[in-house]
Amino acid sequence: MAESAYDVVVIGSGPGGYVAAIRSAQLGMKTAVVEKGDIGGRCLNVACIPAKAVLRVADILSEVREAGDFGITVGEPTVDFSAVSARREKVVGTLTGGVSGLMKKNEIDVIEGTGAVTKDGNVVVDGNEITVNKGVILATGSVKKPIPGTQFGGRVIGTEEAWALDELPKTMVVVGAGASGSEIASAYARLGVEVQLFEGLERVLPSEDADISKIAERGFKKQGIKVRTKTFVENVETTDDKVTFTFGGEPGEAEWLVIAAGRGPDVEGLGLDDAGVKLLENGLIEVDGTQKTNLDKVYAIGDLVPGPALAHKASDEGVIAVEAIAGNKTHAIVHVDIPRATFCTPNVASFGLTEAQAKEAGHDVVVGKVPYGAVGAGTVYGDRTGLVKIIGDKEYGEILGGHVVGAKATELIQELVNAKALEGGYPEVARMVHGHPTMSEAVMEAARAADGWLIHG
What we know:
Its EC number is 1.8.1.4. InterPro entries: Class-I_Pyr_Nuc-Dis_Oxidored, FAD/NAD-bd_sf, FAD/NAD-binding_dom, FAD/NAD-linked_Rdtase_dimer_sf, Lipoamide_DH, Pyr_nuc-diS_OxRdtase, Pyr_nucl-diS_OxRdtase_dimer. Belongs to the class-I pyridine nucleotide-disulfide oxidoreductase family. This is Dihydrolipoyl dehydrogenase. Pfam families: Pyr_redox_2, Pyr_redox_dim. The chain is of the alpha/beta class. It has helices at 15-26, 41-45, 48-65, 81-105, 159-162, 179-190, 210-222, 272-275, 311-325, 355-360, 376-380, 409-421, 426-430, 440-451, and strands at 5-11, 31-35, 109-112, 115-117, 123-125, 128-138, 142-144, 156-157, 171-175, 194-199, 226-229, 233-238, 243-247, 250-254, 256-259, 263-265, 298-300, 340-342, 348-352, 365-371, 387-393, 398-405. Strands 1, 2, 3, 4, 5, 6 and 17 form a 7-stranded mixed β-sheet that branches. Strands 8-15-9-10-11 form a 5-stranded parallel β-sheet. The longest helix is centred in the first third of the chain and has 25 residues, at 81-105. It starts with a strand and ends in a 6-residue tail after the last helix.
């Protein structure tokens, strides 16, 4: 049962909201979370976690098919998609159950309903007002957006629905080759679906470094994905069993059309206008370095505010907001240094500036590039096509950006993120002893390449 007053109320229980609530409770503040859906928010229930559960199945399937390269003879594997779906649900249930357990462990009240903020910094849940003594944190995440000239419905779906299909289709079209679209295309293509991937810009993963995008696209095409860049999907029509559309004047059709071309802040029902919360021109909530809005007790995090729409970014912002509410010394999040991870095959991960961005910013740019095949582990584990690329500033040896494509890229990037966070540069990474034979040696060698003394290459 909800009480009449709390120190902190968090609206939304995704990776930003529930982490904020736990940190609040740790700091001794009486805390509640308001959630209109399932605990864990979209990330745990319909987005990040179910996506990775299905992608993991595709990864294993690929490994089985490549077993012959390692001297293991197996028959052609088959996919029981109902079992895949059951495992996805089990994974989601395990993790959301874990979050519910953390709420109980930390004595956080979970209030079911739609929460809205008031101008004096209280919260109204389905008509019942709750007094908030110290701070409200808005953490409701984002919602899918259609491409111009289309609307969701029938067989035109968003990314959440794409990961929750009941049956494995024969054909699928994915519109948008950013992180979400690339993951969907890569997963379903390896599961045996005929996939077309459309991107309006000139390359897949357009926000990544150009060298990384090129290698990723080669990997997509090897999986059988029909990649069409600089191409827009138009005239979308849905029927009971298919979607028709045009692209570049040509007709097309598929069983499902997935729109993965952007999302918007989920502010419906939050009462922002009535409360007087200031928005930016793009509809996001304006916040300062502590995540505070223009209202004294109201904070906002995650996809509601500027910066990359990433779960781990939301979590860190939740901690920042709560510590500010508690009166603790905190820090402003640095968007450019947040790692970005895309779990398609090949994995793609990055942080900081691309080579083009660094040059445009006027840095004295130095680049260190090493393919996975240059180190022993790349050959041992069967991935010689990956690449580690470090962007640095020559004057001080500063790491401006890190970019990795290939197996375990989403894990390897963290070393460069950590090195920069600890004020290390690429010369320091170049002289750190790395275990052999490991993929991480490619990170070391890329740092050596940037420093001018590449050994293996």
